[in-house]
Amino acid sequence: MQKLGLLGGGQLGKMLLQAAIDLDIHVKSLDPDPDAPCAKIAPEFIVGSFLDFETVYQFGQDCDVITIEIENVNLEALKKLQSEGKKVFPQPEVLEIIQDKRVQKQFYRDNNLPTADFVLTDSVEDIAKNIDFLPAFNKLGKGGYDGRGVQKLASEADLSLAFTQPSLLEKAIDFEKEIAVIVARNEHGAIATFPTVECVFHPVHNLVEYLFAPAEVSAQIHEEAKQIAIETAQKLGIVGLLAVEMFLTKDGKILINEVAPRTHNSGHHTIRANHTSQFEQHLRAVLSLPLGDTTAHSKAAMVNLLGEDGYTGEAKYVGMNETLSIAGAYPFLYGKKITKPFRKMGHITVVEENLENLKNKVQQVKETLKVVA
Q1: Distance (Å) of CA 130 to CA 69, 115, 162
Q2: Among 180, 149, 184, 19, which residue's Cα sits nearest to residue 72?
Q3: How far apart are the first and last CA of the chain?
Q4: Residue among 257, 238, 251 at smallest CA distance from 180
Q5: Is residue 59 part of a domain?
């Protein structure tokens, strides 16, 4: 039995563990939170920081392969483990590019991958010198996550909202849709993609509110998005899963927004809607197994279950019985004890072949299931 070391013990890890059980993979998880979602179900769970060199280095000693469920991990420890013969996927050099949005954006430019125009900035003074570049999104180089570290600057009047740390200004794009493709690549260079999905973001908190799969786009756009995702994975040389988030502009162009080198929110529906889930596919990719069939057997949607605004405390789920009564609706709760406003507490996958019925059920789920304290 192979032992897989997983840096992170959150909801992505929990769903990875569920897939690992089927393949009889022994997973050891590391997370600083003793109550993390993986804590109760991982065969081995270590409480410790995935940012601490010594903790990560010692953690990896008895693992055959080390992987992640969060990008913000100690790269020096992973590099040392890799230099000593441990398999680390995604590779530390790939994580290094992706951890810093400034480096990530420059990578797209250097490799002729389509992305929005941008300017690198080190201070508010730098941003002030580029007023004519606005409207733009100011993105922190490091540390942003789930919508944090992104601020829209419409004009000079918004300069007080700008980040003082190294960041970038990304030209605001007049887009029609936000789409995403998840691509898997194993050590042998085999590649498989999941069908393009269409993401609808929360208007204020800049995280996915719900998505539809497949995206309502032309066959040509599906193919183009797929090819951009494949090319990005190949140029990075990544082993594992890569979620490629893209803008579809109003004039029909596709631009890469950003990527995540792991399982991703835009692929949760695949547990119920595809022959192989993104979680099983990640395991197959990092363990050098044949990649699975990504075909969808139904249209699907995924609704993020976010903590209600105004509630902080021990989580209570209102409307669960009604949600379970909706045909084709499957809740996944992440096991987080404490809810906070807009914290990701779970998701609901809706499987339904009729698109109109699917959209109606998404609305029904959004109105029915609430997380309060």
Answers
A1: 36, 19, 12
A2: 149
A3: 42
A4: 257
A5: yes
- The whole domain housing 339 covers 175-372
Domain count, the chain: 3
Distance CA 245, CA 147 (A): 13
**What six digits make up the tokens of 167?**
């960041």
**Residue 201 falls inside a structural domain:** yes
Say whether both 260 and 330 belong to one domain.
Answer: yes
DSSP states along 295-348: -BSS-EEEEEEEBPTT--EE-EEESHHHHHTSTTEEEEE---SEE-TT-EEEEE
pTM for this prediction: 0.94
Q: How far is CA 214 from CA 63, 261, 269, 349, 362, in A?
A: 37, 21, 11, 13, 15
**Residue 328 CA to its chain's centroid (Å):** 24
Q: pLDDT for 20-35, tens place per residue? A: 999 999 999 999 999 9
pLDDT per residue as tens digits for the range 276-303: 999 999 999 999 999 999 999 999 999 9
In 290-301, which positions are buried (b, 16+ CB within 10 angstroms) versus exposed (e)? ebbebebeebbb
Is the predicted pLDDT of residue 77 greater than 90, yes or no?
Answer: yes
Angle between helices 75-83 and 92-99 (to 10 degrees): 160
Domain with residue 147: its CATH number is: 3.30.1490.20
Return contacts of 321-330, CB within 8 angstroms, 24+ apart: 322/368, 322/369, 323/348, 323/365, 323/368, 323/369, 326/350, 326/361, 326/364, 326/365, 326/368, 327/352, 328/352, 328/361, 329/361, 329/365, 330/272
